[in-house]
Inverse folding.
């Protein structure tokens, strides 16, 4: 499989954010710079659900240490690019 | 939409909220209140349970305990629970919510630890029984995540594996002895999945959710199948294709000698094993029917194969012809007096499965794949035939349906119907609710859809209250005839209110349709109503999509329309003045009752 780019992963994450956070992702509400604190209903349960879905979609498993370092949506996309390029 | 009870769990996890929106829009869902008392974080589990209950025809109202406060909320501070008034309380505890003895414990110390934990859990169950009078569902324990003592962990008095196995045995005994306590077997569930997939420590350390998403989905599936069973929504019949489903090969082409069944080849062994599984289902009360594209005589000959485990007389309804399968399934529903929503359809041919699934969405159509060796496991994991309390009636049901066929044959040779009824030598036992029958009474009440005037669902716990309440007259009817005992087949509940008795519930199993048992039940109810001073019976008919057969039930019994009745929703209300009541039943001998008979 060709290596995924960060842009491709970001686009692939949008349906997940839309499903979990009930927001319209088409108007740029979520970008690489967005963090959980920016979205009012991105609480710990939503976060857990997002991680669960991301891991299933990209068939990756994040370690606790990796999860702890994630600050923004961009960080998550980068980590997915890294973990799927192996 | 996928069958959420069996689909790969990614399809649930990835679309939970969209699925919930779609399912919530459905109409006719049954309201249900469930409280979940957790020993670890339960939000994710509750989300999955919500979805699965919606998928299974319920509209749940859900209450969660505060994190880890299952004991406190049940025993010390149950005010919130009492106010919520749940139909069901589910205790979502785990191996982290019991304390094992020390590693070096003696047998005596193990016993003491077990007694202590059992006392704590009994306090919970006792408190819930006393304060809420609801159904309690308690899960047993998964095995521990680590075997500190290796294989000895299952042997030594200080082994956590030994401790949890002993706890599970005690939980099973307790559930067997308490009608209001049902066990959810997560020990079996986690074993099937594997403990390494059951626990998810990342999530535990991050969110205090002990189990993986997969474990939570499977637990929610198991719980919702138990809830289905409690409310009479379990499946009742297995409809089987023949060629390449019950035997290998095509009997019309390969001939009786050419089909694969028996012990000669691995494939034949696998078909034999599947027939054995079907036969075992039948012996626990699941009806078997055949739906096959075949010549009738050729299809039937397959069961005469010397290695066939299943015999023709064990098939309650047999359809082999060239008509589309969904039409045959409708015909089977009619003959067995069951709704298609009580059917599971098994066919090796994906095209036939797709047709039936599309034409009859209420039929469960599991994806059987193409390997007969997997068939029993696929049916098993579908949990189609879950039962809240397996009764003696279940175990004898298949035989009842056979005897019914004999009765139909007998009816053909009589001049009039009365003569036929008289020839049946029917005897009935009609009595107020007896403790020994409460399981069966609740079970019948919650699964009867057709001959059911109000379709009121009543849990076992509520039924027990009704039995003990002097303001209620709960009657059951058993009917036997010269062909056999039909068992307990009718339930009527009257509620005393001054000079009236309101008939809140009146139902009967369709297997004793047109036998005049309803007349005998009316006689018994009238007699009891009169002896406690009532003058009028008030009957209600509440229409549902399934109970059209009883819409004229009360007028046929001589009730007249009660025009001035207060609010009753879409129900029609009927009244019968008991002055000068004469008994209606002529063909059934009713065994002596406590109360005097009237003549």
């Amino acid at each position: 499989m060709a290596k995924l780019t960060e842009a491709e992963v970001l686009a692939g994450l949008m349906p997940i954010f839309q499903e979990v956070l009930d927001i319209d992702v088409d108007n740029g509400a979520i970008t690489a710079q967005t963090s959980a604190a920016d979205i009012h209903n991105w609480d710990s349960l939503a976060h857990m659900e997002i991680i669960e879905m991301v891991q299933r979609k990209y068939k990756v498993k994040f370690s606790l240490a990796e999860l702890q370092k994630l600050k923004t949506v961009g960080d998550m996309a980068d980590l997915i690019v890294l973990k799927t390029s192996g | 939409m996928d069958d959420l009870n069996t689909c790969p769990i990614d399809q649930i996890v990835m679309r939970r909220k969209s699925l919930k929106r779609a399912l919530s829009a459905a109409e006719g869902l049954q309201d249900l209140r469930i409280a979940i008392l957790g020993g670890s974080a339960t939000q994710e589990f509750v989300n999955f349970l919500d979805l699965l209950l919606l998928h299974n025809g319920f509209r749940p109202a859900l209450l969660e305990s505060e994190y880890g406060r299952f004991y406190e909320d049940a025993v010390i501070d149950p005010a919130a629970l009492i106010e919520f008034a749940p139909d069901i309380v589910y205790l979502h505890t785990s191996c982290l919510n019991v304390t094992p003895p020390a590693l070096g414990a003696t047998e005596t110390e193990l016993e003491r630890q077990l007694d202590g934990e059992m006392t704590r859990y009994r306090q919970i169950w006792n408190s819930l029984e006393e304060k809420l009078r609801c159904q309690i569902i308690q899960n047993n324990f998964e095995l521990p995540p680590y075997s500190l003592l290796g294989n000895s962990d299952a042997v030594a008095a200080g082994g956590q594996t030994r401790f949890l196995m002993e706890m599970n045995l005690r939980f099973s005994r307790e559930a067997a002895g308490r009608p209001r306590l049902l066990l959810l077997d997560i020990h079996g569930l986690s074993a099937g999945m594997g403990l390494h997939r059951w626990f998810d420590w990342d999530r535990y350390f991050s969110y205090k959710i002990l189990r993986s998403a997969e474990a939570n989905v499977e637990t929610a599936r198991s719980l919702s199948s138990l809830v289905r069973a409690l409310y009479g929504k379990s499946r009742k019949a297995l409809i089987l294709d023949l060629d390449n489903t019950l035997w290998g090969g095509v009997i019309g082409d390969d001939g009786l000698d050419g089909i694969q069944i028996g012990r000669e080849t691995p494939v034949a062994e696998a078909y034999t094993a599947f027939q054995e599984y079907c036969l075992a289902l039948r012996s626990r009360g699941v009806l078997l029917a055949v739906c096959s594209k075949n010549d009738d005589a050729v299809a039937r000959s397959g069961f005469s194969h010397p290695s066939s485990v299943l015999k023709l007389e064990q098939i309650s309804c047999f359809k082999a012809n060239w008509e589309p399968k969904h039409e045959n399934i409708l015909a089977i529903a009619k003959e067995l007096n069951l709704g298609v929503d009580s059917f599971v359809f098994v066919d090796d041919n994906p095209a036939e499965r797709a047709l039936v699934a599309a034409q009859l969405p209420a039929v469960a159509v599991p994806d059987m794949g193409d390997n007969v060796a997997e068939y029993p496991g696929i049916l098993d994991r579908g949990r189609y035939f879950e039962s809240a309390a397996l009764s003696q009636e279940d175990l004898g049901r298949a035989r009842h349906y056979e005897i019914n066929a004999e009765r139909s044959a007998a009816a053909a040779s009589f001049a009039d119907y009365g003569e036929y009824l008289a020839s049946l030598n029917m005897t009935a036992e009609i009595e107020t609710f007896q403790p020994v029958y409460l399981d069966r009474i609740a079970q019948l009440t919650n699964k009867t859809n057709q001959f059911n005037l109000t379709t009121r669902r009543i849990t076992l716990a509520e039924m027990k209250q009704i039995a003990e309440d002097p303001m209620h007259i709960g009657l059951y009817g058993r009917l036997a005839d010269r062909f056999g005992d039909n068992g307990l087949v009718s339930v009527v509940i009257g509620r005393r209110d001054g000079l009236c008795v309101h008939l809140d519930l009146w139902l009967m199993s369709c297997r004793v349709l047109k036998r005049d048992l309803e007349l005998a039940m009316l006689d018994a109810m009238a007699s009891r109503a009169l002896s406690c001073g009532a003058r009028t019976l008030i009957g209600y008919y509440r229409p549902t999509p399934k109970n059209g057969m009883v819409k004229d039930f009360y007028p046929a019994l001589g009730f007249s329309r009660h025009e001035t009745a207060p609010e009753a929703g879409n129900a029609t209300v009927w009244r019968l003045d008991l002055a000068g009541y004469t008994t209606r039943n002529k063909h059934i001998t009713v065994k002596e009752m406590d109360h005097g008979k009237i003549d």
